[in-house]
Amino acid sequence: MVSSKTSRYDCGQLIVDITTSTFTRAKKRWRMAYVALYAVRVMLSLPKELVNKRSIYKDYSEISEHDSFGGFQRLKGSQRESGDSNSGRLDLALEVQAPKHDDYSYSSTALDVKPSSDLNKIDHEGLAKLVKEKDLAALEKLGGVAGVTTSLGTNPDNGLPGDNVEVNKRRQLFGSNTYPKPPTKGLFYFVLDALKDMTILILCVCAALALAFGIKEYGVEEGWYEGGSIFVAVMIVIIVSSLSNFRQEIQFDKLSKISSNINVEIFRDRQRQEISIFDIVVGDVGFLNIGDQIPADGLFLDGYSFQVDESSMTGESDYVEVDSTKNPFLLSGAKVADGYGRMLVTSVGMNTAWGEMMSSISQESNVRTPLQARLDKLTSSIGKVGLAVAFLVLLVLLIRYFTGNTTDKYGNKEYIGSKTKTDDVLNAVVRIVSAAVTIVVVAIPEGLPLAVTLTLAYSMKRMMKDQAMVRKLSACETMGSATVICTDKTGTLTLNQMTVTKFWVGQESIAEDSPSITPKVRELFYQGVGLNTTGSVFIPLSGSKPEISGSPTEKAILHWVVIELGMDMEKLKSSYDILHVETFNSDKKRSGVLIKKKDDNSIHVHWKGAAEMIVATCSSYYDTNGAANPLDVDARSKIEQIIEGMAASSLRCIAFAHAQISEEEIEYSDDDKTHQKLKEDGLILLGIVGLKDPCRQGVRNAVTVCKSAGVDIKMITGDNIFTAKAIATECGILKTDHNGQVTEHDGQVIEGAEFRNYTDDERMEKVDNIRVMARSSPFDKLLMVQCLKKKGHVVAVTGDGTNDAPALKEADIGLSMGIQGTEVAKESSDIIILDDNFHSVATVLRWGRCVYNNIQKFIQFQLTVNVAALVINFIAAVSAGEVPLTAVQLLWVNLIMDTLGALALATERPTDELMQRRPVGRTAPLITNIMWRNLLAQALYQIAVLLTLQFRGESIFNVNAAVNDTLIFNTFVLCQVFNEFNSRSMEKKNVFKGIHRNRLFIGIVGITILLQVVMVEFLKKFADTEKLNVQQWVVCIAIAALSWPIGWVVKFIHVPEEPYLLSKRALVRFKNIL
């Protein structure tokens, strides 16, 4: 068959054609033999071949993969007609590569893309604009979707080559699928933001005045100490606060990048591959299913029942129908609302409408969570009390000063009327105002928001390692209050690794090793499985195991029919035309397809879905011999028993039904007969398969832990009631008696339709007792969430489908699945469970409680300092006319409790004890009676000790006033250090349990003590302190250490759970007083 004119052969082309095309084994042997026979002649022709290689490659490469065989036959006439040696080589290449299409299945991957010189000629800006503006007329001028596909050098059947060279070339030509984001806020921004705080500004003004008066009075060498000290202390507070906020901004930016890096399915080298959305290039062929986000602008290639939600782009809530002729335009950022299909990527990144919009939007990282809002109110209330105390202190000190009741360090009156210099008066007033403002600074618990930020940031980081990605900060804290978790079954409680373990045809079970069914039934199964699926089968050239993609259910069924029943997917698809597809629907729980056989033009309807729903549409069934038998009452009852038996064994039951119809019997859903409709009754039951999806290891333990934590677990699934009950029992959600019956006190098992048909009052009455809801629709899940919230529950919901979005949004905490979850579900959720495992849901619950508990610990610690500092300063100011703690010392205390204390207490890890408490729920107070008991005991002790030192310290320790003030300052700081240990646990008496695992806490305590030693011993002028001897240090430590036994004893005092301030009796008394 080789031309007689041929004198030379294109060996390179020949080898490429042989090795990159799929031949039958016989064809491969013939061609390899051909190579062997002519190897010598080919080698002799190589030197001349090298000369002409470039020109020949140019001609070959102009042929796209999609038209590779026909393209060779339509080569330029000048080359076909010329008698030079090149023509001979082309003829040989043609003859070797161009057998008839129906001789064998083929695919070529070497000559499918036009060279970059042709890609350079594409008006990419015009193409991008055409898609954005949905200009159908302009698209038709380019030859429609097929013309653009050819221009971009893409074969829609095989996709782009998977090598990095081609992908990188396209990325350089057309850009990457990323967009520049607004620059993140730098550290300097947060420094300026901190300087806007009113108290900080007042302190800065006071520091400036103190600095000016000090230098004027004592000179530069001595006069800068007081004002300079305040400046340094204020700057330390600003820098620490700014660094914390800056760190949070960086963390938020990282989280944003992770959450936007979604995986998409594309087609390269004839294989479906999952890649990052950022790696898509122009010319890629992408797969789209319900719930997917469209990753780039493009054109619709093919698919069925395809509708998109463009509300994020256009604001229009109505779904847009997409097809390859009337509206093939797909915009990035839109969501697939229904159907499935393939797209050709035409624009990426900044060339898309979504990229232009997103590049101008900066995500706000400082969104206030509900707990932060509550803490803001608490901070405001405490701040008002501190402001009142500071004002009284200011008033008292000013009155005492101007009435001559204050003395300087030499015992002389500070104010003696007109004899006092104006500078001295101003200096004294500034000092008094500075002391009052410092009291405000100490009183305002600025550390509370910082503690929330730190604990949320820390928990988010740890939760990411525990397979949970937090999308909304508020979810961390809200999860700690959860009282109910509504969970899916498939993939969450189970592994989502399905295998077909049972196969029934009619009333007969078919063994795995002997599939005794007739060719007719087998062929119908091929149709019902291979053509009614969103999955795909790829047979590698090496002949290894088939690579199957799709949902776990689709993969399991396809694997079974390919391996066990011997289905050839490529042959099957080439033998039938698909006329219409009904995609899987959560309400109908089935999918269908209308097909025409090419050989005889016979038309077939196939349905696949939930077994009992498919059986309900059937009037007869096939037996193993291929005979159709009537599905009478007895037969229907037996088949229903078969389904119940499989379901009771935790199997998911999928049934297949078939009907052959004439062309006249095709139904339409509209008068214009443009939208076909599948026959839905009078079908013939093909068979039933049972899929086993084993429970996840450790899920039973996780359910037990949640139950012991007082959290109800409700399983909501689309499976039938028997499968649902079996899985729920296996996971520990339900308990059964020795007869296998669910015990009455352990909850109710119902179907979605039953729950839906309850009256509102019945639903509200029964919802608490429901443990399992089977055959539920997304609306049923939403209805249950709404009922639970009305009853005051804090509800967490897991979901993975597009239709779960309303329930995920309605819930207090929406938990989407990272593996099986659609992009719509993920965007509607607060937390993404990366491994789809219920154990991770329980871990999120632990971390949520830990966040709430850590914040309560810090509130207790900080309020102790606030109460003690306010009372001590107020009493000392009123009675003695001076404040025992200077501005710098109070700022240092503020730094200890606000920053270091928050860091120490906010990074405690969750403990098992947290999961043994009842959930706090929606209305529990932030400050509990236990917290009031602990903080008041410690505050009263500190007040008593420090006031004793204030009024009797000099005589008790036989020291001067300066040393006594240092003793007061040192004791006060050390009391806070020791009280940090007490705050580690609000109820446990052993506050040291597990402390060796929190190295950060130990490190912070050590740093605090070290800095305190430096403040006292080495920064005399800066901190206004005096050096202390060993004995005095021991006394300070001993007084502070008494905090431990006091905290231990206090925890024996029982307090009621009902809050003091919110008890009914207290409210009644308060009302009567008013």
UniProtKB/TrEMBL annotation:
InterPro entries for this protein: ATPase_P-typ_cation-transptr_C, ATPase_P-typ_cation-transptr_N, ATPase_P-typ_cyto_dom_N, ATPase_P-typ_P_site, ATPase_P-typ_TM_dom_sf, ATPase_P-typ_transduc_dom_A_sf, ATPase_P-type_domA, HAD-like_sf
Domain Cation-transporting P-type ATPase N-terminal: from-to ranges: 141-215
Subcellular location: Membrane
Top-level taxon in the UniProt lineage: Eukaryota
GO cellular component labels: plasma membrane
Subcellular location, principal: membrane
MF terms (GO), sorted A to Z: ATP binding; ATP hydrolysis activity; calmodulin binding; metal ion binding; P-type calcium transporter activity
Top enzyme class: translocase
Transmembrane residue ranges: 198-215, 227-246, 382-402, 432-458, 863-881, 887-906, 1000-1019, 1031-1050
PROSITE patterns membership: ATPASE_E1_E2
Membrane disposition: Multi-pass membrane protein
Enzyme Commission (EC) number: 7.2.2.10
Catalytic activity from the UniProt record: Ca(2+)(in) + ATP + H2O = Ca(2+)(out) + ADP + phosphate + H(+)
Alphabetically ordered keywords of this record: Acetylation, ATP-binding, Calcium, Calcium transport, Calmodulin-binding, Ion transport, Magnesium, Membrane, Metal-binding, Nucleotide-binding, Translocase, Transmembrane, Transmembrane helix, Transport
Gene3D superfamilies: Calcium-transporting ATPase, cytoplasmic domain N, Calcium-transporting ATPase, cytoplasmic transduction domain A, Calcium-transporting ATPase, transmembrane domain, HAD superfamily/HAD-like
Translocase keyword on record: yes
Pfam families membership: Cation_ATPase (PF13246), Cation_ATPase_C (PF00689), Cation_ATPase_N (PF00690), E1-E2_ATPase (PF00122)
Entry's family note: Belongs to the cation transport ATPase (P-type) (TC 3.A.3) family. Type IIB subfamily.
Reported function: This magnesium-dependent enzyme catalyzes the hydrolysis of ATP coupled with the translocation of calcium from the cytosol out of the cell or into organelles.
Alphabetized NCBIfam families for the sequence: ATPase-IIB_Ca, ATPase_P-type
Protein name stated in the entry: Calcium-transporting ATPase
Organism: Rubus argutus (Southern blackberry)
